[in-house]
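User
Here is a favour to ask of a fellow structure person. I am asking you to supply a protein in sequence and structure-token form. Please set it down just below, with no commentary around it:

Assistant
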Amino acid sequence: MKYYILIIIVLAVWFMQADDITVYQSNGQGFALVHAVQHTQLTKGENEIELQNLAEQIRVNSLLLNDNQQGVEIIRQNFSPNYSRAGNIIEDAIDRIISVTNSDGESIRGILRFYDGQYLGISDTAADEFHLVKEQKIADFHFQTFFDDVNNFSPSVSWLLNSSKKQDIELNYSYLTGSIGWDAIYQTIWDGDKKLLTLNSQVELTNNCGKDFLGSKVKLVAGDVKNLDQETNMRAAKTYALHEDTAAMGMPVSRSSLSSFHLYTLSTPIDCPDNSSRQFQLYPSTIIKAKEYYLFNSNGYETKLQKTIAFKNSKENGAGNPLPQGTVKMYTPDKTDGQLQFIGESVIENSPTDKTVILKLGDAFDLSGETKTMNVQYSDNRRKVISSDYQIVLNNNSEEDVDIIVKHQLDRQLPEIIGADFDYERTDAFTMEIKLKVAAGSEKTLSWSQTR
């Protein structure tokens, strides 16, 4: 008997092949395309089968039977929603007895006549009353048990297939699911003396879709792939830190193109259970030449200067790989003992090769700026401003010389600059950019006028 059991288990494992996934990164709400295989026996003609082990967050309208099947076509598809959403349980309880308790402690028992997503209509036949109850006011629900199988808590999809012959085949199908995604995380170390940035890039894959992916081949798509279902059919996020495995951190990742996006393929299959996250390396660590400066946005009310580190994402500069959007955490050695200290966090957009990446880390403590408007001149009827004088005062109270970039937004009524006592560049019709160095413990004043 034990041998028979062993054979059954081996056959079950052989039939249940691992699902592969292509995971998309899209504005912080990822989704995935699941590639599934299911072995089945078909007779000639019509066959009804149930798809097994689907993700709870499946987008049913995305189910696709791949075109490599031999003489098989879908005639009809039936979907039974899962009970992991409270709304599905309420909807299926219509015409059944239900008891609810509102926030005031009042109980109502009767037959649920309708549910529109906001209100429940409950008919109390014993008291000859009808209650219209707002769902948000209900503190507790009680239902008659009308589901006994644990499978009721997973979605169920069945297909009516037509087969041209009797055959044993592997159905290859795919579907989209929400609540699974990935993020790029960059850990960087800044050497301010040598102006070098050590860049370590990682990927964090998070699965909350209601399905385990074990021994799955994983591909990642970088880029904003439009998905209209992205905002819908999303269950409440779980705390995925319950299972966090970093064993695959050094796993090689290959990159290729996919239409106008980038595709990353993990070299070996991984396990990514539901309610978990995995981290692994995206690119090998690299050292990049970078520059440090302080940015002052001269808009009339800003006084703070923002510490900024920028680098060109080029091979000549030590970089050169496309960088998916993500969070950059920066550290620098403490000058007293060399211990790394956290100095800021920034967010980058998708950054292709040769693009300049700008990391804005936080406001400087010892630097300040002020923009002054003076001597405003009006036309004779005082309806228009015809000229104005400006000053920018920059203070460096630190013990080091600093590089500063000033971005000043020009008055659209006064686009002409005259009498500037500094060098500047007009980056567009209404933006003036000034690059300068301010010595330690000093003040720098910039003066100019604008006119029509």
